Amino acid sequence: MPKTPDYFHGKTIIITGAASGIGRATALIFAREGANVVVADVDAAGSQAVADALRQRGSKALPVATDVTSRPQVEELVRRAIAEFGRVDFLFNSAGSAFRRCKFLEIDDQLLERTFDLNVKGTFHAMQAVLPHMLENGQGVIVNVASMSHKRGGPGASVHYAAAKGAVLTMTLGVAREFADRGIRCLSISPGPVNTPFAMAADTPPELVRKFVEDVPMKRMAEPEEIGELVLFMCSDACGYMTADTVYVNGGGGWR
Ligand SMILES: NC(=O)c1ccc[n+]([C@@H]2O[C@H](COP(=O)([O-])OP(=O)(O)OC[C@H]3O[C@@H](n4cnc5c(N)ncnc54)[C@H](O)[C@@H]3O)[C@@H](O)[C@H]2O)c1
């Protein structure tokens, strides 16, 4: 929660991957707080549907079909956000996927490249596109999504994904420290299993999902709103001294 009432009122956030799961839940939370939301996703119909839902609740929302692996599309996203709302205060990079679960020796070059293109380059493009604008404003907060898997390495199922999220974590650290004295904060969140279409998108077998959940001390997945509320806190004026680090949201830990 912010320190100042109405802190988010009229401020603008760009959310990538906003058509589903954590990105969508975060869009609804920021809209609740009166923020303008730029709903970016490769799923154009999904972005439109989320923007419609936000507008129905009285918020200002701009859907922008964006493939974050494309630098020109991400640059256009930031241009459109500034043209519509005048400035961008926050960026939440939620677009990400593990694509496919497999053992380490079955990871082919294509899977590795796709995973790094989306999770690493997507985050990299968005940060590079928005940072000059935030630096000009003298303030801005970027929140990236890593994963608890970066700590576990994803043995037997997703080393490609865990490694990409490790890169997101490291990039966050570097950006945060490079721009810390210029009004920019940059943080990452490392969730455990979250109840979204993510597992389905990566064709995760149900028995693996059960194993993930059984190993969580709280014996349940996070709900996407439990990540979104943390994004709100991280972007708020109650969180002014926190930058560079990742915060684990994982019900006490998980799959080793
Ligand atoms: N759900 C989990 O268990 C979990 C755990 C740890 C980390 N994460 C991370 O959380 C983030 C959000 O995942 P989620 O659970 O909400 O999954 P999700 O599948 O519900 O949402 C991901 C969204 O990203 C979008 N997307 C995919 N490729 C894109 C591209 N090239 N450009 C723009 N958008 C694209 C999808 O269309 C989708 O709307 C991801 O970065 C994921 O890696 C998820």
- Name every ligand kind in the structure: nicotinamide-adenine-dinucleotide
**Major β-sheet strand ordering:** 3-2-1-4-5-6-7
The percent of residues in helical segments reads 40-55%
CATH architecture: 3-Layer(aba) Sandwich
**DSSP summary, beta strand count:** 7
The third-level CATH topology is: Rossmann fold
> Whole-number radius of gyration?
17 Å
- Overall number of structural domains: 1
From the spread of the alpha carbons, the general shape counts as: globular
Q: What is the CATH C-level name?
A: Alpha Beta
Structural class computed from helices and strand pairing: alpha/beta
The biggest beta sheet is recorded as: 7 strands, parallel
Helix-strand sequence: EHEHEHEHEHHEHHHE
For CATH, the homologous superfamily is named as NAD(P)-binding Rossmann-like Domain
How far the N terminus sits from the C terminus, by CA atoms, comes to: 32 Å
**Residue share in β-strands:** 5-15%
How many individual helices? Answer: 9
**Low-pLDDT runs:** none
- What would the average pLDDT be, to the nearest integer? 96
